[in-house]
Amino acid sequence: MSSSPNANDKSKVWQWLPWLLLLIFVMLSVWLFMQMKTASEAKWEPPRSTTEAPANVPATSDKPVNAIASYHDAVARASQSVVNIYTTQAVSEHPYSDDPVLRRFFEFHGGGDPDQGATNLGSGVIVSKDGYIVTNAHVVEKADEITVALSDGRKSRAKVIGTDPDSDLAVIKVDMQGLTPLSFRETPIRVGDLALAIGNPFGVGQTVTQGIISATGRTGLGVNKFEDFIQTDAAINPGNSGGALVDANGELVGINTVIFSRSGGSLGIGFAIPTALVEQVMNAIIKDGKVSRGWLGIEIQSQLRDPTQLESSTGVEVMSVVPQGPAAKSGLKVGDVILTIDGVEMTDANTLVQYVARKPPNIELNAQVLRGGKNKQIKIMLMERPAQEEPDPTIIFDENLGGQDAQNQAQIAPELSEAERNRLREELLEMIEQDAIRRQQQQ
After folding, report:
1. CATH number at residue 322
2. Quick one: which of 70, 193, 358, 433 has the fewest CB in 10 Å?
3. Does the annotation count 168 as an active-site position?
4. What is the pLDDT of residues 372-418, one digit of tens each?
5. Closest CA to 273 of 134, 438, 428
6. What is the C-alpha radius of gyration for the chain, rounded to an integer number of angstroms?
7. Is residue 380 part of a domain?
């Protein structure tokens, strides 16, 4: 008795069903793999605000300008993304801590207990929901342990993802949920715009100060190798390092980094790293753990300018060329004056350094050079910038309460001979005795 057609069809279906399921499983696995690969290769983008800034009213307009009574909403949005950072670092024992007199002297000047770790205060800005935080490199420099405190009271240990001392930026990461990243301002900030600085000055807790944008594009301060600072008169004090500089809408415009001060306190001249540079450095650190910059391999100086002359003198003169460097291989020579690169006028040395530093290695630049009174076009293939020594700061970092000189004196113990040490000890004992006599006379 032969089987029915329906039975044969069912048998064939059951034979092919495992293969069909296997094919579906393979296709699904390939699709998931491609999705994960695309997500991992996607460029990190900072959060963008969906709110639009109010239209500017021209100064000649007859329409009344409504004054803003409060910046509470802007501060409320931004402050939840600004964190306090506490770092600890092991402190080596002072060479004169075994002498009770000298120990008393050095402790009076901030030496402290050598058995305890030094605590550094700073701030940071949350830039992603998965825990990335941007701050200053000098805040987390040489830190043995980093603690992050959120505005809602939560705390967490953080790990360093990468640092870039050349721009004084660093990225750290916490393993926490429910984080709110701060929106980046899309349009460039302008001189005269309102600025709000948010941070943790002197460790008193999250604080907001108000000012305006005093200047943009500040360079040549000698703080970082690559400088493009926003200047503001919003009060920035020790502990504000790595904190947020936001606009009237609570959007991030810069990362507070240094102040110009004679005493360590705010004098109304503070500097912040603009978001354009922050985004470039942050993307590189998150993706590669470091920042790779273009390098020409030359030493340069701006063309000498005489303020009494009406003619303007632009261009950057090549003072030396590194052998086997990109410039040397392209034919650039000492004495050449670089006028433009890729059509951008090189007005001074800082402009050239900043332009090249923002370019990645292994790309070609077209330079217009003045040589012997004639213009010449030279193509230069950039190489990766080698590691170099850090610059000697001329501006006081905002965590240095006693200024740069006081910090150096506190960190470097003087090497004294035994005779000098005894003489210093006798002078200190005499000074302490005289101080005790004076106190008794005053009583």
Report:
1. 2.30.42.10
2. 70
3. yes
4. 888 899 999 988 887 654 443 333 334 333 333 333 333 334 455 66
5. 134
6. 30
7. yes
179: its two tokens: 């984080």
Residue pointed to by tokens 């990190």: 44
Q: State pLDDT tens for residues 133-156.
A: 999 998 988 888 999 999 888 999
Q: What is the distance between the alpha carbons of residues 342 and 375, in angstroms, rounded to a whole number?
A: 14
CATH number (domain holding residue 151):
2.40.10.10
Pairing of strands 337-341, 229-232: unpaired
At 286-295, the pLDDT tens digits run 988 888 888 8
Q: Which two tokens stand for residue 138?
A: 């000098």
- What is the domain range of residue 376? 294-384
Task: Give the pLDDT score at 121.
Answer: 81
pLDDT of 112 above 50: no
Confirm whether 138 is a catalytic residue: yes
How many domains does the chain fold into? Answer: 3
Instruction: Determine the pLDDT at residue 253.
Output: 94
pTM: 0.65
Active-site residue, from 81, 128, 138, 266: 138
Residues in the chain: 443
Check if 241 is active-site: yes
Q: Which of 168, 228, 233, 348 is catalytic?
A: 168
Give the list of residues 6+ apart from residue 182 with CB closer than 8 angstroms, or none: 47, 78, 81, 82, 125, 126, 127, 244, 246, 251, 252
310 and 375 inside one domain: yes
Single out the catalytic residue among 79, 241, 261, 302: 241
Residue 239 confidence (pLDDT): 82
Please indicate, yes or no, whether residues 364 and 332 belong to a single structural domain of this protein: yes
Instruction: Find, among 338, 403, 318, 347, the residue nearest to 220 by Cα.
Output: 347
End-to-end CA separation in angstroms for the chain: 128
Residue % of the chain over a pLDDT of 70: 67
